[in-house]
Amino acid sequence: MFGISPSARLRPSPFFEATRAEGVTAFTTYNHMLMPTSYGHPEAEYWRLLNGVSQWDVAVERQVQLLGPDAGRLAQILCARDLSKCKVGQGKYVPLCNHAGSLINDPILLKLAEDRYWLSIADSNIWFWAGAIAAERGLDVEVSEPDASPMAVQGPKAEEVVAALFGDWVRGLKYFWFRETAIEGIPVAVARSGWSKQGGFEIYLLDGSQGTKLWNLVKEAGRPWDIGPGNPNFCERVESGLLSYGGDTDAQTNPFEVRMGAYVDLAVPDDVVGIKALRRIHAEGPKRHQLGVILEGETPTELGFLWHEIRQGNRKVGDMTNCVWSYRLKKNIGFALVGTDCQPGDAVEVVKDGQVLQGTLTALPFI
Amino acid sequence: MFGISPSARLRPSPFFEATRAEGVTAFTTYNHMLMPTSYGHPEAEYWRLLNGVSQWDVAVERQVQLLGPDAGRLAQILCARDLSKCKVGQGKYVPLCNHAGSLINDPILLKLAEDRYWLSIADSNIWFWAGAIAAERGLDVEVSEPDASPMAVQGPKAEEVVAALFGDWVRGLKYFWFRETAIEGIPVAVARSGWSKQGGFEIYLLDGSQGTKLWNLVKEAGRPWDIGPGNPNFCERVESGLLSYGGDTDAQTNPFEVRMGAYVDLAVPDDVVGIKALRRIHAEGPKRHQLGVILEGETPTELGFLWHEIRQGNRKVGDMTNCVWSYRLKKNIGFALVGTDCQPGDAVEVVKDGQVLQGTLTALPFI
């Protein structure tokens, strides 16, 4: 592993000092911020998420705030999913596409008020893009970055912890719904969401000066359930089939290629960015789709920076966009972005680190 | 220093293997790629740049290509600087501003042909923004990322090295001008440019599969002048007063605040993004400006992730946006983004890592 040099281009999170106190050992960068990726015990951190409860600094999931009389109109213009029935307090997973129908982010949209929406984004700059479209269309809406920094509490025991801290009302929150509240004077929003399939919540810290205090409140509340630090878990997210925008996508990827077709409403108005291109792509049928790959061999792989070419015979048919050792399957697994003629069950070769590995395509999720 | 976890969201450069062979020890991330920041000998790398010639992997300076009949029109719409006299083969340093007149990047614009321009960008996503404006205005132009990866050769002996490799014609290149050529079958563009004040060139590799070969050609050519690896040098760029977009700027920074007023042409047409806001800001006078700070004390500081508050008396007057030990001044120095009532010569206090340090404001550059 290489070191990462400090720079003011890379902001620390409000939970930075708390995660240092927890013994963070590695970071990634995401939305020009640092996100913890390891506390030095990867397998234990994985099983904690699967069997217990894990506390994550995911402040890098930044918010793009749309505020003003035209906020709702802009939200719909930016999202290829119908928002007409979205209620205050509700969140929705939405594809953001450019005018050519290519995916440029896959945020959770949160409707805080009729004139205030947040896009809780993956790792790409949506402020410039959304601001440009709002201004070009002459809309009365401000696009900005609010003081809002999510912390995730994930795992089968997460609900116990969050209920112990905030009250039993959290048990009634539906998936992606949220409520604004406060804890010991710290303003927060509590949402049932998070980038795992193990269940849990995201607590949006709404006062960046109180990160350590909030971290420690959650940590204290979680002590009876043996809470510990973790982070979006590479192995669990791959096993669970969760997409990583920018990792599993390229500049030409459209939502239909990466299992997001269910979140595209082709009947949204014509002024939605990219919708005409998406209708055409849908009518023609996507050229690629996303499957899983299970590689032969029993030696855990190292994480890498690159995609790996997938071949059938001597022909490139696509790319393996991630590769990780599955603690449950005891195999190296990953996602395949391949031509639609490739199907689950097909044998493939994967070119990885100069070696040709044998693998089999499979449906997603793995588990 | 913390480790950086591998992820396909962070692409390696075409020179990645070459820099590993050179002994790279640390990286930063920039435009979702890895950029070397150290080869383990920071002071030696600094003096090599000052006195000799240094070879840098700056492939992270990505290109936003504007291609098509309306490329020139789009270039002018995006840039608050008059491009009407820009010739093929010429480059210009340009501020990119959003509709509110805030700086969103400070690229070198390269005019490759009447219908082909590149914006060689700093660390923010301009593809989405430029593509949105082109599409909203119905322009006939494609916005894309070409296969173009700069390597810099910097320092007083850089011209000798680049002339030895490409021929004496490079000595005639004017600042920011460039020429497309090839070396041993590798297509490149050679520009007189680079993010230092020590002089030199950037060689844009135009075939990403040949990074190691190009690296080694330059290394061989530089052997008589004792070339060695380096990177955009934090100390040299601060001493020289070079701006780091995103490091020294915030979401509200306008070009006049950070010594870029000379690159804004207020008379460009009204359809240039942000020009109306820039005229208003200029007429009102900017609220902040950029100066230097020299701190008291003789102990070299560590680089950090944060800005440091600058005070006069008990009042915050701005921020110190970087802080580095100057090998030439033998002081810790950095940039101040402060109210326009603050002037060179003023005594200030800087709050850094919980300590209050005494400092003096100064004009930029330091040297």
Can you tag this structure with a few keywords?
homodimer; 367 residues; alpha+beta; Gyrase A, domain 2; Elongation Factor Tu (Ef-tu), domain 3; six-stranded mixed beta sheet; six-stranded antiparallel barrel; 8 helices
CATH topology name of the domain at 16-62 and 148-237 in chain A? Gyrase A, domain 2
Terminal CA distance of chain A reads 29 Å
- Which consecutive residue ranges of chain A, at least 5 long each, have pLDDT under 50? none
Residue share in helix of chain A: 10-25%
pLDDT averaged residue by residue of chain A: 97
Biggest interface, residues from each chain: A-B, 57 and 57 residues
CATH class of the domain at 16-62 and 148-237 in chain A, named Alpha Beta
Oligomer: homodimer
- Globular, elongated, flat, extended or rod-shaped: what is the shape of chain A? globular
Largest sheet geometry of chain A:
6 strands, mixed
Strands in their spatial order, largest beta sheet of chain A: 13-14-15-12-4-16
Overall radius of gyration of chain A = 21 Å
Approximate strand percentage of chain A: 25-35%
Give the helix tally of chain A: 8
CATH superfamily of the domain at 16-62 and 148-237 in chain A: Probable tRNA modification gtpase trme, domain 1
Count of β-strands of chain A: 23
CATH architecture term of the domain at 16-62 and 148-237 in chain A: 2-Layer Sandwich
What structural class do you assign from the helix and strand content of chain A?
A: alpha+beta
Report what the structure shows.
The structure is a homodimer. The first copy, chain A, has about 375 residues and is an alpha+beta fold. Among the domains of chain A are: about 15-60 and about 150-235, Probable tRNA modification gtpase trme, domain 1 (Gyrase A, domain 2); about 290-365, Beta Barrel (Elongation Factor Tu (Ef-tu), domain 3), CATH 2.40.30.110. In chain A, about 20% of the residues lie in helices and about 30% in strands. Chain A has helices at about 15-20, 40-50, 70-80, 125-135, 160-165, 210-220, 235-240, 275-285, and strands at about 1-5, 25-30, 35-40, 55, 65, 90-95, 95, 105, 110-115, 115-120, 140-145, 150-155, 180-185, 185-190, 200-205, 230, 290-295, 310, 315-320, 325, 330-340, 345-350, 355-360. The first copy, chain A, has a 6-stranded mixed beta sheet. In chain A, strands 17-21-19-18-22-23 form a 6-stranded antiparallel β-barrel. The longest helix of chain A is centred in the middle third of the chain and has 12 residues, at about 210-220. The first copy, chain A, is globular and about 60 Å long. The first copy, chain A, starts with a strand and ends in a 5-residue tail after the last strand. The mean pLDDT of chain A is about 95. Chains A and B meet through β1, β2, β3 and α4 of A and β1, β2, β3 and α4 of B.
